[in-house]
Amino acid sequence: MKSFRVSVHIVPRKGLLDPQGKAVADALHTLGFGAVGDVHVGRHLVIETAAADAAAAETSVREMCARLLANPVTEDYEIAGVIAV
Amino acid sequence: MKSFRVSVHIVPRKGLLDPQGKAVADALHTLGFGAVGDVHVGRHLVIETAAADAAAAETSVREMCARLLANPVTEDYEIAGVIAV
User: Fold this and answer.
1) pTM for the model
2) Is B52 near chain A, with CB under 8 Å?
């Protein structure tokens, strides 16, 4: 078993309302960043886990996302990276 | 002016308590993911902005992080990627 650090992005599903992103975009406009268009706010998780290899670590984290970390109705997740530590 | 999509990670500063990460790690252990070690939870922002080039887009987003998006006392930010759209 080796140790891996897996990064995950959990973002609101495309087409769903993202009120937090809208609030950030409005605040940036107010601050003078007029060039800003859409903003999307999601979560960035870094999970350290032991696994036989990188593929097993990724599979395990996908299962964590499906069972706990992401809301399947409103959110999508993607594995951003798997590095051995 | 071209359009760029800039990804930013905002994470709790190293060494600071990350109660949300601790809660996620505990929940994963309860669900049977015993191999999980530390978990860190941060924010993942995707900002669409117009700029002359990729370097200008990155500079502009760094200023947004410093002025609004990240808490300089408790959080670090990093530009994860800049892509033209």
Assistant:
1) 0.90
2) no
Contact A69/B40 with Cβ under 8 angstroms?
A: no
ipTM of the complex: 0.89
pLDDT tens for chain A, 85 residues long, are 899 999 999 999 988 889 999 999 999 999 999 999 999 999 999 999 999 999 999 999 999 999 999 999 999 999 999 999 9
CATH topology assigned to domain A2-30+43-84: Mth169; Chain: A , (3.30.1280)
**What residues of chain B, 22 to 41, have a C-beta less than 8 Å from chain A?**
24, 27-28, 31, 33, 35-41
Q: Please state the domain extents for chain B.
A: 2-84
Q: Does A48 contact B68 at a Cβ distance shorter than 8 Å?
A: no
The CA–CA distances, whole Å, from B30 to A16, A57, B2, B35 equal: 31, 18, 48, 11
